[in-house]
Amino acid sequence: MLTALFWISALALGYSLIGYSLILLGLGRFFPAWSPRVDAPMPAKVSFLIAAYNEAPVIAEKLRNTLELARGDCALEVILVCDGSSDGTAQVARRVEDPAINVLEPGRQGKALALACGLEKCSGDVVVFSDANAMLAPNSLLAMLPHYQDRRVGGVCGQITVQAKDGGIGMSEGLFWRYDQAMKHAEAQLGGTVSAQGSVYSMRRELARAPRLGCTDDFDISVAAIHAGKRLVFEPDARTSETTTEEVKSEMRRRIRSSERGWRSLMQNAALMNPFAHGLYAWQLFSHKLMRRLNPLFLVLLFVSNLLLIDKGGFYLLTGIGQISFYGMALAGLIRPDLRRLKPVALAAFFTFAHAAMGWGILRCMAGRQSTLWTPSRTKA
Fold this sequence. Notes:
With about 375 residues, the chain is α/β, with parallel strands linked by helices. It contains 13 helices and 9 strands.
């Protein structure tokens, strides 16, 4: 029984961390790549929706950055929803005088309700969602809009680049995001990108719905395209860059909250994992989201079963020593930030605390805890 538990956990982790990406890349060689077509006009108007909480230091720059994205004949409106900010975010925003900007102050109610409030004011053919601290590359809007000339497309996901400050956590998270974006690019060639990341993505207005309370807004909003029988595409030229934090405690809180909401979102959209209804996309969602979120369980089972098997032969002794050493190195890195300048320590610390936060967040969700308010933990690049 213990041997089976060890190998099932090891194989599940191997599939989630390495196997899925290899299979995905392999399938790309045999399946025809996604080929866009033109069967609809270019969107005439775009609504840019930003929800902000205590973003006074960056909100003026964000608004100017957004206004500069307007090009050609496409009209642009900017809906900024200040979610009860206490640092004067709305006042700073109103100093950026432009008739295209509409600043709303519904009070502190959480990001989901802030986005719902903003969506009521969006009148464009396409809604672009973007974080308040995410500055977009100049051609981001121009890169996204042509995709909507294909009626099969319901949404467009952009690319995030994470810039690390001095320290190992940021470096490790930067590696993770490069891996994640590579997966999005590969998935886009098969069943379509699994979901959006909140820094920059867009949706057809008729598909853009308010996220459900307690759910991850970018996931819950973007998969509405799949429910509608349309496709999410990946546009790497719609780019933004963010800077990570080396504050492990604040990042841990953010990840726990994100994992709690992410698990709830996945469960409420579980029908999308039906391969008979959604084909390759269902397999991609299962592998990219569900299996990845089960990794904390498999890691615990692998570690515990390995310890109980450690006297059953040289192989289990070596793997047991390896796991103990890995987690010991991770713990040392979390306690001593200076040690995280060593790349192996930084990677072990990031891997361990990220999965611990993911597991804790899922347990919170299962226990009925629900986070509705949010406090950003990243800073602008």
